């Protein structure tokens, strides 16, 4: 088709997603719902048919899924899983497994064959990471017991996306046990060869070719490396006849062990956002507003049944693991919706022929409805969970779900680990406070790790890098970068993510103090001021030692102290 027509339709779909995403975000909904509805209104059956290149856009959007799985691979970490605790981790694994089995059983009883029932069970077993985490963080409930449970479930579900995609592909590909075993063996062999090839490529070829380059001066090279590795692995996986998402996930997992993982994640985020917006827009084209209106009771009934089953399964699992009834019920409400990964697994199921169009249309419609309901349910999850627990356990004393909260991380983040950052960190070595260092210089991060601190190579002006350093949970953030404009951007980003954090900034020149104060710094130490004070102190001591007749000199006043914007420290 005409490339300019395709370009127009891509721009129209993105513009519609921008407008509707903004509208839904304005009213407390997830922008993702706006992307889906934009696709539903602009293209597909029952729409205004402004976007007609559905297949072409869907092919482009598949790259967004690959980059999404690539990012999940970058986040994959065994230490991160262990930090959740055994009970939360076991609860997350059981929640995915039991929900998959339960929903497969419900779909089978509804009349679907076993392969299609498994595909449906896999699609609806996962919850919405984007909606749940955003709502819990905005409401400050991420550190409650049910917030911790929800975080564990969502992390396990993110990891489960790849095995579930493989499960769908394997079940659709063979007619019997032998064919399934052959498919599993081929997938394992291909994955193993891909891991080995990527390991050799990154540790020998790329290391020799890029080893002498610094991230500070050659930022674009890490972005190119990430895209080549991520999308190249997806292409290799497709060529081998397995899921491209699996190839991208493996690539991310291998790159995740490199010191550049944090910055790579930030650098590909913009491209991933654009492609994923196209993906969700194209997924929305599947939904037919006329069909939904004609089958409204079926859609509402399916949505209610799925959400109630997920609520019940999660409630029972976490109560059996020792959680209070209210906490377990609130956890179930928090993760009862169908998540955005339903569209990813649905795309896999459609590609391999594991699900019919009618069934896929029903699940897509139910997912959109559940995502619409989620922000409202999450806002009152604690109250609803408490009342449900009191109703079920009538006559029993029930504690509110947020009666006990977990301790916040309360760590300290140091941005820039040059001489100033190292001197500031020296005072923290003897304390038990966790220190996280963010620096673009590989040597600075290496030094931080040698001193026992956590370190991430990355540009702290980017939100993704700061989020990876968990700035939202930080007690204090120390910014020591010498460049004023960069420091201002870092402070603004930190203040946006952590409104209550104590921000301490080093200013190279006194003229820059006002800019840093306006950007949100709590206290500013100027190099010129500190050096001037040290010079004055030395001069007073020298005069006192060498001029016996000289009267003791008083501490000089800072000529800018009264007018300095940081004189009123928080």
UniProtKB/TrEMBL annotation:
Q: Which UniProt keywords apply?
A: Membrane, Transmembrane, Transmembrane helix, Transport
- The record lists the organism as Symmachiella macrocystis
Which named protein is this?
Answer: Inner membrane protein YbaL
Q: Which Pfam families match?
A: Na_H_Exchanger (PF00999), TrkA_N (PF02254)
Name one cellular component (GO) term. membrane
Q: What family is it from? A: Belongs to the monovalent cation:proton antiporter 2 (CPA2) transporter (TC 2.A.37) family.
Where's the RCK N-terminal domain?
409-525
Membrane-topology annotation of the record: Multi-pass membrane protein
Q: Where is this region: Disordered?
A: 544-570
Q: Is the keyword Transmembrane helix assigned to this protein?
A: yes
């Amino acid at each position: 088709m005409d490339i300019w027509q395709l370009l127009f339709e891509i721009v129209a779909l993105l513009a519609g997603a921008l407008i509707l995403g903004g509208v839904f975000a304005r009213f407390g909904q997830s922008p993702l719902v706006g992307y889906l509805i934009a696709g539903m209104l602009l293209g597909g059956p029952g729409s205004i048919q402004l976007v007609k290149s559905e297949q072409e856009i869907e092919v482009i959007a598949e790259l967004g899924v690959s980059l999404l799985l690539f990012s999940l691979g970058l986040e994959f970490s065994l230490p991160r899983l262990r930090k959740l605790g055994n009970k939360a981790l076991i609860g997350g694994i059981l929640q995915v497994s039991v929900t998959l089995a339960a929903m497969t059983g419900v779909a089978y009883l509804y009349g679907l064959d076993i392969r299609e029932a498994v595909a449906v069970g896999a699609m609806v077993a996962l919850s919405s990471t984007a909606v749940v985490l955003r709502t819990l963080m905005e409401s400050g409930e991420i550190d409650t017991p049910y917030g911790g449970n929800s975080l564990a479930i969502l992390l396990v579900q993110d990891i489960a996306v790849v095995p579930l995609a493989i499960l769908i592909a394997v079940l659709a590909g063979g007619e019997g046990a032998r064919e399934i075993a052959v498919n599993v063996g081929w997938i394992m062999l291909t994955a193993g060869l891909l891991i080995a090839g990527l390991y050799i490529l990154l540790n020998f070829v790329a290391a020799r070719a890029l080893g002498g380059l610094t991230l500070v001066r050659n930022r674009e090279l890490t972005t190119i490396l990430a895209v080549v590795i991520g999308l190249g692995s997806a292409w290799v996986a497709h060529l081998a006849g397995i899921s491209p998402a699996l190839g991208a996930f493996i690539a991310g997992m291998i790159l995740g062990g490199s010191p550049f993982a944090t910055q790579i994640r930030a650098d590909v985020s913009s491209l991933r956002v654009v492609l994923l917006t196209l993906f969700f827009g194209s997924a929305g084209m599947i939904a037919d507003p006329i069909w939904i209106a004609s089958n409204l009771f079926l859609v509402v009934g399916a949505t209610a049944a799925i959400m109630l089953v997920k609520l019940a399964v999660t409630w029972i699992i976490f109560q059996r693991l020792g959680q209070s009834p209210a906490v377990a019920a609130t956890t179930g409400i928090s993760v009862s919706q169908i998540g955005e990964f339903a569209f990813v697994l649905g795309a896999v199921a459609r590609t391999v022929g594991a699900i019919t169009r009618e069934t896929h249309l029903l699940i897509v419609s139910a997912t959109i409805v559940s995502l619409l309901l989620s922000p409202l349910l999450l806002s009152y999850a604690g109250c609803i969970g408490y009342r449900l627990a009191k109703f079920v356990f009538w006559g029993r004393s029930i504690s509110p779900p947020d009666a006990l909260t977990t301790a916040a991380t309360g760590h300290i983040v140091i941005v820039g680990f040059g001489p100033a950052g190292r001197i500031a960190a020296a005072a923290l070595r003897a304390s038990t406070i966790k220190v996280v260092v963010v620096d673009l210089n590989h040597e600075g991060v290496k030094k931080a790790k040698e001193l026992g601190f956590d370190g991430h190579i990355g540009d702290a002006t980017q939100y993704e890098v700061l989020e990876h350093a968990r700035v939202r949970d930080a007690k204090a953030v120390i910014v020591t970068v010498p460049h004023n404009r960069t420091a201002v951007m870092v402070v603004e980003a930190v203040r946006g993510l952590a409104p209550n954090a104590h921000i301490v900034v080093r200013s190279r020149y006194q003229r820059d103090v006002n800019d840093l104060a306006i950007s949100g710094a709590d206290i500013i130490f100027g190099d010129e001021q500190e050096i001037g004070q040290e010079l004055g102190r030395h001069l007073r001591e020298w005069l006192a030692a060498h001029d016996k007749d000289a009267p003791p000199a008083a501490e000089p006043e800072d000529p800018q102290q009264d007018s300095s914007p940081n004189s009123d420290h928080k």
